[in-house]
Design goal:
Two copies of one chain form a homodimer. By secondary structure, chain A is an alpha+beta fold. Chain A is built from 14 helices and 23 strands.
């Protein structure tokens, strides 16, 4: 048992830094800063998250591919804005063995420039469209800011969907689908979020527009967990992605991308955890139900055998469970599995055995419930679903309480969290507000929220729209 | 439909090079030689192979981890033989953005030198042993020889298990388990193999001994698909992997590794395929049963609905199937799915509908079988299992016919395939035989095969053991 543990409620960042290692998610002692080792428990959790997104991709007819990691410099440089945006953040391979390469290769920071030359070969005719692909790979960015496990790292576990369409409107429909995917997927992770359309000067390098997906961490700073990009034909032109239309002419494709990263884990850890450790959403928890035998002398066999029976029944219903039969006290076992965030605990002792009952204990609120053996699987399913709902609702309330639609800088200075202020539409005023509030521009709400009769708190001109500001990770 | 296709029976290598692209496994047009794009069908196949090895790992209590791709030069250089063996084959990252790195980092060619410094932190006491881990990642080797899809590439999809043990004997037990895993796993891929203990001068850089796992390709050249290494404490010493024993002293761990790569796909493609295309082992085929409606006017709906019913029933039994409802002729569909190697085809036309029957067609031998609707799933399961057995047996016979235990060089010159000759134990004689036969040393059979009364065909001294030679990939 670890000796000390910082309390989440006292020092969130210290708690976060400690919990990712205590709960066996990752090891930060690898000798390259920001490149961490995925430990078995963390990797399992990440893989469950990956499987959920794979399910969503399958349902929406995206096909999984895997493109090379290394990108020749000349390919990378074809789209000017892209290289400007990423050039200073990439790692360069210059030697193979003792031979200097004729052309430098970079480690993908994202895969547009690896994929699009090949897309231009795959797409010939309008019947090849839409092309909907995705991959789950590691990407690399040379972060100079302070690193933080899962949140700011240099080797990033990354999901990226890339689609090609016959025109702008079809690409827009893809973005609608992407938003629906985010909604279903993030609900399963119990993560409420906001979509913001990034301001022009801070969109993805090469994009026509960017929608960021942000969650609110307990520190009241936002964490961008994903983004959706409309590229129009900005990449199709330099990479020559054209198709033959029905009437025999040639057109450029319109493209979208959709990215999410291991930051999702950062959000899960930060938003749901408590002083005792992680609280994992049931849909992705490597173990959903931990079964703990409360051994009494003379009845060991009976109790263990009952635990194994429960394990069998849950496994048949595809509920991931585990019997902890280690030779340590039940209290120590509770401690361990609470730390690791297993959403539901089952305790089986002599009392339960006699009455043919089972004790269920919820990780999120500590609630205990005695149920009859014969409703085991239905009761467990209901508890897991209730835990999922509670985690989501709790986070949703926190987000709601910390999203402030205001009119003046003075009001804004009083608030923590996400601030929405009327905006005249100029970079200058947004930047000034950023400075005053010591925060970052998130972007406009994508829902059309009325801003008539409001004016920019800086220049006083009539507002075009609302703009969001927050301290960010 | 592609216009031309080389016949496997006429030019195996050309057939292989063509089929990997025609069957949508990979795209070789990526601008870095030997770094290919995994297309959706190829990636699905690879993922099914990965899942089988994951199952084996889970059954044998190995835990999945994921270590960083990049390794600092100083870590890499701690084990002398290792750096000698790999030094000329690695890619070096020297710049991050515009900044030259203080220390060069290399892309992992294999992960010993990334993992072992961390293992030395994870292992404290004998209770931490054995430590059994694995990861499935891409690795990188600067190949200068001619590349070939899945067989000789520069970015390699790789499985690597790494274990630590209290002593040599426990590591030896691990190697026994590894051999059992190979046996179960490769049986599912319908791949017969031989284990050979590599000669000392050609073992893995840093290993105490290496067992290679080779299959025999139709060209009668062997393909090494995997290897098992006993490291003894060769790495534990430089990386300081020690543990406290029961009596309080400290000992070095003994280690093993087990590696297999995407070459498994190369073996599946090469060994099972025929002139019509791939033939995939049912256990890993992305689609196990392709259902083809034989549409007759006026009965379209009935036939499609029957196909969908069959799809449903198979899906419930976890048999991966797909209804091909494209608007092209059945003949074209047969062609496509034969090319892609789907092991079993179901045809449903008006005749089948009337008689409540189903036509099953095997990909491997073209056999057709009419079965009654009500035995659908059991019949399909039996056919898939029979196909798996046939593929294995056919390959096994080919391997048996081409493994020659001989006494003299003259006999050996007459034979193609794998040659076993008596060996005196010296590198000099083995090398001479290699030269004479224009082939490579594979290693000794790991089964103890009697070699009394035989002598080395080069020096005439009494043989210590048998030695295998073959042309290799």
């Amino acid at each position: 048992m670890p000796e000390t543990k910082v309390k989440k409620t006292e020092d969130f960042h210290e708690w976060y830094n400690e919990i990712v290692e205590l709960a066996d998610l990752c090891d930060k002692r690898y000798p390259i800063k920001g490149m961490n080792v995925w430990r078995p428990y963390g990797w399992k959790l990440m893989r469950h998250v990956d499987e959920l997104i794979r399910d969503e991709m399958e349902k929406t007819s995206h096909q999984e591919v895997c493109f090379p990691l290394l990108i020749p410099e000349s390919l990378f440089k074809k789209e000017e804005e892209h290289i400007e945006g990423f050039g200073s953040e990439v790692y360069w391979v210059t030697y193979a063995g003792n031979n200097q390469l004729e052309e430098r290769w970079l480690l993908r920071p994202t895969s547009e420039t690896a994929m699009y030359p090949i897309f231009s070969l795959w797409i010939r005719s309008h019947t090849d469209l839409p092309l909907k692909t995705f991959q789950i790979v590691n990407t690399f960015r040379y972060e100079t800011k302070q690193t933080r496990a899962f949140i700011r790292v240099r080797e990033i576990h990354f999901f990226e969907a890339h689609t090609c369409h016959k025109d702008f409107e079809d690409a827009e429909r893809q973005i609608e689908e992407d938003k629906e995917i985010a909604d279903r997927f993030l609900k399963k992770l119990c993560l409420p979020y906001i979509f913001s359309k990034r301001p022009d000067w801070d969109k993805f390098a090469g994009a026509f527009y960017t929608i960021s997906i942000d969650v609110l961490m307990p520190s009241r700073r936002t964490l961008q967990v994903g983004s959706i990009h409309q590229y129009k034909d900005n990449f199709a032109r330099p990479y020559g992605i054209t198709y033959e239309t029905r009437d025999g002419t040639h057109s450029y494709c319109h493209q979208t991308t959709y990215g999410m990263s291991e930051r999702l884990l950062g959000a899960i850890i930060g938003i749901h955890g408590d002083n005792k450790g992680l609280i994992l959403p049931p849909d992705v928890s490597p173990i959903q139900v931990i079964i703990i035998p409360i051994i009494f002398k003379g009845r060991e066999e009976e109790i263990i055998s009952e635990c194994n029976k429960i394990y069998q029944k849950l496994t048949e219903e595809k509920i991931r469970s585990h019997v902890d039969s280690r030779d340590i006290t039940p209290g120590n076992k509770y401690y361990d599995w609470e730390l690791k965030g297993v959403p539901l605990r089952i305790e089986i002792g002599p009392k339960e055995l006699e009455k043919k009952e089972i004790m269920l204990v919820r990780r999120d609120n500590g609630e205990k419930k005695l149920i009859s053996q014969n409703i085991l699987t239905s009761a467990v399913k209901k508890e897991l679903s209730d835990i999922s709902t509670s985690l989501y609702e709790k986070a949703k309330n926190f987000l709601r309480e910390n999203l402030h639609r205001l009119q003046t800088i003075e009001e804004a200075k009083e608030k923590k969290g996400i601030i929405e202020l009327p905006w005249c539409g100029t970079e200058k005023c947004a930047t000034e507000i950023e400075n005053i509030l010591d925060s970052n521009t998130l972007g406009e709400p994508i829902e059309n929220i009325k801003c008539e009769n409001t004016s920019c708190p800086i220049c006083g001109n009539p507002a075009q729209t609302w703009m969001r500001y927050a301290k960010t990770y």
